[in-house]
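Researcher: Next sequence.
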Amino acid sequence: KYFSTHKGKYPVYSGQTKNNGEIARIDSYDHDKEGLTWTIDGYAGRVFYRNEKFNLTCHCGLLVLKDEYKNKLDYEFLKYLLDNELPLHAVGEGNKRLKKTHIEKISIKIPINKREEFDLEKQKEIAGKYKLIEQIKNEVSKELTKVMGTTLEFS
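Model: Next structure:
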């Protein structure tokens, strides 16, 4: 009911994976920042990049870099890395969950350079390759839809 009485331009993201997680658009927003959201329930651990004004339901969480890492880590690299890693840590039968307490225990590998600092250029290179794969998957899905008359989603 709230969504229909407060229609607007700001997306509301939930734990769904279709439509980039968006379930509605309303006339106000809670967040105006760059970050990553992850699905807590169902397809737990799916990750989406956000850089806009937006809202979240209780079925997804928000990850934001601390100031000291903002020029050292690439959000798109982290999106692809975490989108592959987080679902492996979801717990439960059927409707899996991945809460903040689960994520806090996860370690990930980030490229470092010869000075033993995070290698931002390598992160961007890897993210670019993942982005290309996503584009190819989307094109294949579109072509299959034309041929078969049904939508195919890759996870």
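Model: The two ends are 31 Å apart (CA to CA). The longest helix spans residues 120-148.
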